[in-house]
Design a protein that fits this description.
It is a single chain. The protein has 152 residues and is of the alpha/beta class. 25% of the residues lie in helices and 22% in strands. The strands form 2 sheets. A 4-stranded mixed beta sheet has the order 3-4-6-5. A two-stranded parallel sheet has the order 1-2. Strand 1, helix 1 and strand 2 form a beta-alpha-beta unit. The two termini are 29 Å apart.
Length: 152
């Protein structure tokens, strides 16, 4: 959607799942988006593709905060990207699955902050959005993660 609206987009999925990267390529072709570059990246892994990425303004992340054991790898990779552009923000949603799973300690460790955006602030708190039952009875949060330092 961002590419259709004119944004310069780099689309990524796990480098460990080549089939997913093929699906990303096919999706770009089917949506007439030849300008979208597809890159294989794996959270927490330093790769040539990660090192070659230009500075990003916004990282739109979908379905990334699922398994708590992956949270630190995600934030480590985001921290690396923040070194290229300290003003970059990670925008994502998070489905609350357990009160024991929290990003707070990891955000503190990596000198990041998180702003929770209420779903109702942009009309996403209703059922059957885009023909989906979410958020439904689930607790879904919109997150914007950035460096904690206001001076950056």
């Amino acid at each position: 959607m961002a590419a259709k609206c004119g944004a310069e987009v780099i689309l990524s999925d796990s480098s460990e799942l080549p089939h997913c990267l093929e699906i990303c390529q096919q999706s770009c072709q089917m949506n007439n988006l030849p300008q979208v570059h597809v890159v294989g990246l794996t959270w927490g892994h330093v790769s040539r593709d990660l090192l070659a990425l230009p500075p990003q303004d916004i990282i739109l992340a979908s379905d990334v905060f699922f398994e708590p054991e992956d949270f630190e790898d995600i934030l480590t990779t985001v921290y690396f990207l923040m070194q290229k552009n300290p003003k970059v923000q990670l925008w994502s949603t998070y489905q609350v699955r357990s009160a024991d799973w929290s990003l707070e300690a990891l955000l503190y460790k990596w000198d990041m902050k998180c702003v929770h955006i209420p779903l109702e602030s942009f009309g996403a708190d209703k059922g059957d959005i885009a023909e989906s039952a979410l958020p439904g009875r689930h607790t879904v949060e919109m997150l914007v993660i950035s460096f904690a330092k206001d001076s950056l």
